[in-house]
Amino acid sequence: MASESTFNIAAQSAAPSDLVVARPEGLYCPAGNFFVDPWQPVERAVITHAHSDHARFGHRHYLASRAGASVLLSRLPDISLQTLAYGERLDLNGVAVSLHPAGHVLGSAQLRIEHCGRVWVASGDYKLDPDPTCDAFEPVRCDTFITESTFGLPIYRWDPPQTVFDGVDSWWRHNAAQGRASVLFCYSFGKAQRVLASVDAGIGPIFCHGAVEPLNRAYRDAGVHLPPVRLVSEIAPKDKAVFKQALIVAPPSAQGSAWLRRFGDYSDAFASGWMRLRGARRRRGVDRGFVLSDHADWPALQTAIHATGAQRVIVTHGYVEPMVRWLREQGLEAGAFATQYGDDTVEADALGGDDIAVQSSAAGVQNNEAQTHELDDTASRS
Ligand SMILES: [Zn+2]
Ligand SMILES: [Zn+2]
After folding, report:
1. Which regions are flagged for Basic and acidic residues bias (predicted)?
2. CA 241 to ligand 1 centroid distance, Å
């Protein structure tokens, strides 16, 4: 489509008064002399949350939310970390910064930057759906809002989380009744703990893969209540019958590995926003796909952006182009920053290579018809 291919999304030209600009190292606040979730090593980095595309090794000083300190340090031990309580203000070079809940994962924050009467907010990743493992998203009024757009297409609409977890519970209950283990693949940081905190722990024992346990510990250290969860590796081969009634939470990388053999007969499922796409589910080759995301869906992105009152919106990652176009149609000033968010191993882990190609091309200049055709019937009815 010609109109889309000529659409210039990357050229967000900077005005001298801009509080955040794009630099090769990452998003930068010139007045405050700090970076936001930089992808190259810098002197001072403000980190919105501990996912690996936003929180990287190698910076000299880190500033992050106190709520997220345990998870951040479990991923990046020994960093020089200063923390702020949500809402607490800090002066950086004459610029007032504060962190506000983003509802994405434990400790996730939006960064509010105020200088000379202007207010910008950088969202990091966020969602509006309730999540017992982290503080709820808090709308912050601002002039300019820097937003993610991971699921920024109208096809992405989530069911209420309770509906999804009811589905997980009945899948698990059914498997347990058949004497079959239930193996649920999901990201080890954030999604796994949200699942653990939300399923009905009365159905049977819960186990996790070794990659999930350190994050569980960090969540518990931060005061998040999780049900009792044992490590799969604690069970001797002679006792493996215990798995027949169990829910086993594992990272996507465990799929297809020899680690699964110990469970004997099992049903597997995958929990991700990408499960909205039939193609993603098919390529995953799992019995069930649960559409569960820690990102805002299309309506929630719109709600969140509207709630900021911002007249200018800058989109960082995901389906950038459709979101920028939609924002301009709403009469807002909209543009994009080219970033390296969204292509981390955590998120890539959940996608097949094809899905990644589809996702990044949609963020570029191609049309979205391919994804629309991938939509399954249930999605278009919801
Ligand atoms: Zn994230
Ligand atoms: Zn991200």
Report:
1. 371-382
2. 36
| Contacting residues for 155 by C-beta, under 8 A, at least 6 apart | 276, 298, 371, 372, 375, 379, 380
Shared-domain flag, residues 8 and 148: yes
Look-up: residue for tokens 């999804």? 164
pLDDT surpasses 70 at 323: yes
Band (349; pLDDT cuts 50, 70, 90): very low
Q: Are residues 6 and 141 in the same domain?
A: yes
The whole-chain average pLDDT of the chain stands at 88
pTM, whole model, 2 decimals? 0.88
- Ligand 2 centroid–CA 288 distance in Å is 25
Using the predicted structure, report yes or no on whether residue 70 has a pLDDT greater than 80: yes
For residue 374, what are the domain limits? 2-156+294-381
Q: Are 344 and 261 in a shared domain?
A: no
Single residue among 251, 268, 290 that ends a domain in this structure: 290
What lies within 8 Å, CB to CB, of 213 at 6+ separation is: 229, 231
Percent of the chain whose pLDDT exceeds 90: 82
The ligand that comes nearest to the alpha carbon of residue 50 is 1
Distance from the alpha carbon of residue 38 to the mean position of ligand 2, in angstroms: 12
| Dihedral sign (CA 57, 62, 65, 71) | positive
Distance 37 CA to ligand 2 centre (A): 10
Do residue 52 and residue 112 come from a single domain?
yes
